[in-house]
Amino acid sequence: MGYNTPMADPKQHRIYLCAGVHCTAAGRDALLRVLEDELWALGIDEAVEVRVSGCQNRCDDAPNATVWPGPYHYSQLTAERLRRIVAEHLAGDRPVEELLHRPASPHA
Ligand code: FES
Predict the structure, then answer these.
(1) Rounded Cα–Cα distance for residues 16 and 4 (Å)
(2) Considering only CA atoms, which residue is closest to atom 1 of ligand 1?
(3) Cβ of residue 75 lying under 6 Å from some atom of ligand 1
(4) pLDDT of 75-97, one tens digit each?
């Protein structure tokens, strides 16, 4: 099943943490613990499905995650950023616009 599989269960959100080599080297394991702790702390661990994915093709901006329904692509994750995504997007259903991935401009 790919990471862009449509939601087909009662979970309200699904979040894929990239488990590719770059994101793993950039701290994905610690972020996974933060994610699970925050979901539990906010009482939404039953409403959010957590999965890991293969490379999400944004390696230069690791660590990365994608939230469904969406996709909403988040990059350059830190524990602090991930806590905001959990509170505002996964609990509050408001994507965190300022943390969404923005591809580098070829003219930058
Ligand atoms: S390893 Fe995570 S985006 Fe490529």
Answers:
(1) 9
(2) 20
(3) no
(4) 999 999 999 999 999 999 999 99
